[in-house]
Design a protein that fits this description.
With 344 residues, the protein is of the alpha/beta class. It is built from twelve helices and 16 strands. The strands form five sheets. Strands 4-3-2-7-14-15-1-16 form an eight-stranded mixed β-sheet, with helices on both faces. Strands 5-6 form a two-stranded antiparallel sheet.
Length: 344
């Protein structure tokens, strides 16, 4: 398994992409991570209810069927979200997964009903106190990470690194990563209008002396209050820190598995400037690119970024997408920021 290599099949609007994906997996050795009897976590993003951009279910069904044919025990998995939409708890998350077409295999919410199922693992970097890995991921024998490559308002982009770093951990570690950002209320600009109070999903802002105060330790530093403020009085600062945190968490999750037991697939179609975490489609800014496969999250994300014009995402979101890759490399993750890409 050459971690510096990425296999790629271009998107063909007039071709059978399911059949092309099968050829891709065989070339990349995607299923080499599976041994008979393995409990195989197939990590996906089930998509927020109402967002149509997640990876199509029939692609996942083939992966499930192939793992079964090799004697593995596959299960689809994702963790609950910190924010209170339709994947915040296991019940809603499972219902959303079924509604979005993923009812063909066991769907196990990796961190439990309300994110109580986590295993504390050492953090590979002092940036995070520890990495609380979602229990079903921690207990799996192997994992195939299937990601939808797209933009993200906080991390610039979401690919394999974010799918692992944010999607394979509990709410505790999700919150810790988000709180690496600094939220600043510029009192000289605040008019005390209360828009942020009404907008917040968690009812955390409050008005004191006609000035907004946001100081709760439960604030996840999401962009809702800052984007809703009509005066621009609320800003998120030190944006690169969350990109670093995502990579640290991802490396912590990867360290749970023995070498050669995790593979990665990235779908670069329906690429929008925003993530699949909200019930909105977002702006698609490029044509469908293709599918990537690798044994390194660093290599597969590096190859994908070069194909999706990531500089546009840098400009839209005000961050440098490459920060995730640089940090993964610093942490000693296998792979390369300049991988060899082989077209299938």
């Amino acid at each position: 398994m050459d971690a510096d290599k990425v296999y790629f099949v271009p998107w063909n609007m007039n071709g059978d992409m399911l059949e092309r994906s099968k050829a891709l997996y065989e070339s990349a050795g995607t299923f080499d991570v599976v041994s008979p009897g393995d409990k195989v976590a197939i990590k996906l993003h089930a998509g927020e209810l109402g967002n149509p951009n997640y990876v199509r279910p029939f692609f996942l069904k083939h992966i499930v069927d192939r793992v079964r044919s090799l004697g593995g025990k596959p299960f689809l998995t994702d963790s609950t979200t910190y924010y209170p939409l339709k994947r915040n708890n296991a019940v809603d998350h499972m219902e959303t997964a079924v509604a979005n077409g993923f009812g063909f295999a066991p769907f196990i919410v990796a961190d439990g009903l309300m994110s109580e199922n986590g295993v504390s693992r050492p953090s590979p970097d002092p940036l995070l106190e520890d990495v609380e890995v979602a229990g079903a991921v921690d207990q799996a024998d192997a994992m195939i990470v299937v990601s939808h490559l797209k933009g993200h308002p906080l991390t610039g982009f979401g690919g394999a690194i974010k799918n692992v770093g944010m999607g394979c951990v509990t709410k505790k570690t999700k919150l810790e990563q988000h709180r690496l950002l600094d939220l600043v209320v510029h009192q000289e600009h605040c008019q005390g209008c209360g828009v942020c109070v009404e907008a917040c999903w968690f009812d955390l802002p409050r008005l004191e002396g006609d000035v907004a105060v946001i100081d709760s330790p439960n604030c996840m530093r999401c962009p809702i209050c800052s984007s809703s403020c009509p005066e621009g009085a609320i800003t998120l600062e030190n944006r690169d820190k969350i990109l670093l945190g995502v990579s640290v968490a991802a490396k912590g999750v990867m360290d749970v598995f023995p070498p050669g037991k995790v593979s990665y697939v990235n779908f670069a179609n329906d690429v929008s400037t925003v993530c699949d975490c909200a019930p909105v489609q977002g702006d698609k800014y490029i044509k469908d690119v293709g599918i990537f496969a690798s044994h390194s999250p660093l290599s597969i994300d590096a190859a994908g970024l070069e194909h999706i014009e990531y500089e546009h995402l840098n400009q839209v979101h005000g961050v440098d997408c490459q920060v995730q890759l640089v940090k993964m490399q610093e942490l000693g993750a296998a792979g390369s920021r300049q991988p060899t890409v082989e077209k299938v």
